User: Fold Peptidyl-prolyl cis-trans isomerase from Monosporascus ibericus.
Amino acid sequence: MDETGLPAGWEVRHSNSKNLPYYFNAVEKISRWEPPTGTDTEKLKKYMAQHHSGSGSIGGTAGQPQQQQGPPEGKIRAAHLLVKHRESRRPASWRESEITRTKDEAATIIRAHEQRIRAGEATLGELATTESDCSSARKRGDLGYFGKGDMQKEFEDAAFALQPGQMSGVVETASGLHLIERLE
Assistant:
């Protein structure tokens, strides 16, 4: 195991199409978004924070022209922090190959994040970088622009109800528990 915390043969690579890190095994020619079994998640978390976290700028998103003014027609832009649990649709993430926490444990974790954000101790983007179970953590939770029908209904309803700069309370979807911040 090296500084990444990944098992032998695995490495972190960067997807140019999604602008996200992923895991690749050169021997078996396997790639995946979630870390492989046997990963030292604490080491990986530190490595990802040092080498694969955003620079702090939420400026342009991949595939979006930098000069664009405002969101495309009918679309909004939001960031989120996701905490998965063992009943989530896919109980795995870039942080953990198998998520075993209960929904109640996930709720306790996300409420603590919500308190820190509302108290001004951290921003959603800062926490998402190391604490979110979504691969959008690489982009400080930024999901880019999306319209009606692009996201799970509960997520979409909450996101579209926010004004730019506002953050939701805890939102539950099949993916897990979210805090959502409307960016544009």
About this structure: The first helix runs from residue 41 to 51. Residues 10 and 29 are 10 Å apart (CA to CA). DSSP finds four helices and seven strands in the chain.
